[in-house]
Amino acid sequence: MFLQSNRGKGSSTPIAWVPKPQSSWMNWLSGLVINVLLKVGTYYRRRKNISEERFRSPFFGRLLIHELPFGLIIKYTPRPVGEAIATMTAHAMGLPSPRVLCYTDLGTIEGGWILMTRIPGETLWDSHQSYSDEELTAIMVEVSDCLHHIRRFASPYGTAVCGPDGGRIYTRAVPKETWRRRESPEDFYDDMLICAWSMKDRFEEEYAEACILKNKSYRVVFGHGDLHFSNIMVQDGRFTGIVDWGSAGWYPEYWDFVHPMSTWCDEWGWAVDFLYNMPGGEEYEQERKSFDAIIQLSCGQFF
């Protein structure tokens, strides 16, 4: 586990290690390596008769995951720098997450690629039907242990709610998928309430529910930001890791327990129940109610 040696003043809480973005020269060199490996991956998948369709995105019109030999993959992402930094941060904290070997940013519009290790197994979404409720609950206990583990680390950005590198947030759980850095959880929540402001007179009870959190204080911790069954890996009934850290950042402590898949509840209701009921989630029942009220009052502003 790699940590910054400094600790919070007067505190034994270790400050999380966050890598700096790579230089333009390293980005160019990584691009050369990844381009060669993309060709290797094409040959490897044809030789092994590995289907590509399950990794093809209907949104980006391209293959998102390229499987390679030796337990490696190359992943396409619209924000390679932020996702690579987040994944490296999670791995350094000791979480079962991919190890980033290199990444390349092709530009703001084109996105980029990340070369990383592959977490063994398959997604919980693909395999959940083969597990009993008791087995699913045991898996979610292990996921909860991961969320509690990262709470041991303080943010290097103080009380700011921000992306993994201290910049903007990218997550489905905020309007239009992106959000500017805010210097405290209180400021962040004020921005959330703006989404509900136009409906406050018509739905006074719901708006009052949403406003309850204004008077509460929270720590800022590292969060996944998009935790759901498609990002949880399992093998033979055992939890093996968490993937897809593209929405990760420094969030109020309740974030991963409160908002998972909040905008997809109609399609994933049963899965959301498992996520909400993870050990520790019961501490944030009010936060869940307030966040749900904001979703209802936002009039489709959430992605």
Automatic annotation (TrEMBL):
InterPro entries: AGP_Transferase, Aminoglycoside_PTrfase, Kinase-like_dom_sf
Residue span, Aminoglycoside phosphotransferase domain: 90-269
SUPFAM superfamilies (alphabetical): Protein kinase-like (PK-like)
One protein family per Pfam: APH
Domain of life of the native organism: Eukaryota
Name of the protein: Aminoglycoside phosphotransferase domain-containing protein
Taxonomic lineage: Eukaryota, Fungi, Dikarya, Basidiomycota, Agaricomycotina
